[in-house]
TrEMBL record:
Residues 201-300 form the Fe2OG dioxygenase domain. InterPro entries: DIOX_N, IPNS-like_FE2OG_OXY, IPNS-like_sf, Oxoglu/Fe-dep_dioxygenase_dom, Plant_2OG-oxidoreductases. Belongs to the iron/ascorbate-dependent oxidoreductase family. PANTHER family: OXOGLUTARATE/IRON-DEPENDENT DIOXYGENASE. Pfam families: 2OG-FeII_Oxy, DIOX_N. This is Oxoglutarate/iron-dependent dioxygenase. Its cofactor is L-ascorbate. The lineage of its organism: Eukaryota, Viridiplantae, Streptophyta, Embryophyta, Tracheophyta. It comes from Trema orientale (Charcoal tree). GO terms for molecular function: dioxygenase activity; L-ascorbic acid binding; metal ion binding. The keyword Oxidoreductase applies. It catalyses: salicylate + NADH + O2 + H(+) = 2,3-dihydroxybenzoate + NAD(+) + H2O. Keywords: Dioxygenase, Iron, Metal-binding, Oxidoreductase, Vitamin C.
Length: 352
């Protein structure tokens, strides 16, 4: 390795006018930004459903459960408002995230690792050990549950990072568990079904930092992929970049302040025996502005055994997947690199 070459994208490309060659996608695999569908955010139409979680408690409970079920089945994505997480918690998380990425290189690099199985690590692209083309992203990855097992590994600079990120994690964990109860109910399962299926529960967070890119049409922040976990709760700043696959097209999911974007991961697709879909999404970059997104990946513990819920299997719908441990799934996901073909196919039963 060239020891003088910066390890992180931010330091490599600061001020450069061209995308380095190892970030350029082959022509058949570029974002085609002109073909992306955009929806206005002024109310009448939306790229993904917006669900008011306040209405989960009260006389509209079953309407909201049905709304969540409909979104999981038809979009794999929805947005939530009135989710119970205070604006200050969100603001503080975004602030410390930005402050971290603005630290001098030498300070940031204290957290650097290219080992995808390290529980706290600052890295770049996706998996630099296996991928052929790099993605336009640096990211800090943190394990967050149980918090006390990991928080002392997290960056201590900026000074309030651990405190604010821990508060954010506790809040998102509460939200994720409420969502999992609603998703279980929407499948006709007991409300704690998914909760119990996850063993000890895992929670990981990525803080994605996408620097401005001089040629955004040539590369991705992250190429199309589905998430390997149970559900993802995504916070994004006010810069657009997330796009979701729908009816054969890429659709932009632009930011609405203080809402979260929720998507179904592969494990819910398995537990639901394919009733709910883990949908492809990607992040694109732009030439003007940096962007921060913070997905929380809620997941089973590695030893949890995942398979379709018995209640969702019958003669007409036999199990579409074999059972596996989440650890087995997770390793395949990281070792393979991001691909539009999901890992799910490797775990399918071959129904005649
Ligand atoms: O930046 C985004 O909006 C998407 C991030 C994402 O898909 C991921 O980190 O897996």
């Amino acid at each position: 390795m060239d020891s003088t070459k910066p390890l992180l994208l931010t330091d490599l490309v600061s001020g450069s006018k061209h995308v380095p060659s190892n970030y350029i996608r082959p022509e058949h695999d570029r974002p085609n930004l002109d073909e992306v569908e955009h929806y206005s955010l002024d109310g009448n139409s939306s790229s993904i459903p917006l669900i008011d979680l306040q209405r989960l408690h009260g006389p509209n409970h079953s309407d909201i459960i049905n709304h969540i079920g409909h979104a999981c089945q038809n979009y794999g994505f929805f947005r939530v408002k009135n989710h119970g997480i205070q604006e200050a918690v969100i603001d503080n998380m975004l602030r410390v995230a930005k402050e971290f990425f603005y630290l001098p290189e030498s300070e940031r690099l204290r957290s650097y690792s290219d080992d995808p199985f390290k529980t706290t690590r600052l890295s770049t692209s996706f998996n630099t050990r296996t991928e052929a083309v790099s993605s336009w992203r640096d990211y800090l990855r943190l394990h967050c549950n149980p918090l006390e097992d990991y928080v002392d590994e997290w960056p201590a600079n900026p000074a309030s990072f651990r405190e604010e990120a821990a508060e954010y994690c506790r809040n998102v964990r509460g939200l994720a568990r409420r969502l999992l109860a609603a998703i279980s109910e929407s499948l006709g399962l007991e409300s704690d079904y998914v909760d119990r299926a996850l063993g000890q529960h895992g929670q990981h967070m990525a803080i994605n930092y996408y620097p401005p890119c001089p040629q955004p049409e040539l590369t991705y922040g992250l190429p199309g992929h589905a998430d390997p976990n149970v559900i993802t709760v995504l916070l994004q700043d006010d810069v657009a970049g997330l796009q979701v696959r729908r009816n054969g097209k890429w659709v932009a999911v632009d930011p609405i302040p203080y809402t979260f974007i929720v998507n179904i991961g592969d494990q819910i697709q398995v537990l639901s025996n394919d009733r709910y879909k883990s949908v492809l999404h990607r992040a694109v970059v732009n030439s003007d502005k940096e962007r921060i997104s913070i997905p929380t990946f809620y997941c089973p513990s590695y030893d949890a055994i995942i398979g379709p819920a018995q209640k969702l299997i019958d003669e007409d719908e036999p199990a579409h997947y074999r059972s596996f441990t989440y650890g087995e799934y997770y390793e395949k996901f990281w070792n393979r690199g991001l691909q539009t073909q999901t890992c799910l196919d490797m775990f399918k039963t071959h129904i005649p």
